[in-house]
Amino acid sequence: xxxxxxxxxxxxxxxxxxxxxxxxxxxxxxxxxxxxxxxxxxxxxxxxxxxxxxxxxxxxxxxxxxxxxxxxxxxxxxxxxxxxxxxxxxxxxxxxxxxxxxxxxxxxxxxxxxxxxxxxxxxxxxxxxxxxxxxxxxxxxxxxxxxxxxxxxxx
Length: 155
Known about the structure:
Blueprint: E1 2-5, H1 15-26, E2 33-36, H2 41-50, E3 53-57, E4 73-77, H3 86-94, E5 97-101, H4 117-124, H5 127-130, H6 143-154
Parallel strand pairs: 1-2, 1-3, 3-4, 4-5
């Protein structure tokens, strides 16, 4: 399993902790490691091609999913209150099993967003119009949300 770490705002908050917990939970049935997105294009293609399971924050680099083998697993993690479906559609085209992890808490928010905005935009029914405001935030999915997605693939 590869956990793809980005540079900039939309990166995993603590990928080392996530790797440690996943390796502990799966006790030898899974080997999780962190891969940096900042490597060359050929390196990124290799990471996507070799991964049985790939966990990545939402971003343009996820288009490299086209290099994944059919029936492998692509897990996309979103910043708080952000949701986008384009990679789900791409996964369907390339026959990759797609899972998403959405976070609805205010642990990390984009600079343009005030506390409470996410809930307010959902209540007003405007979140799909305003969701781009929420994109530039760190991604911190709960390991308990990642675990079932990976367990489904490992069992």
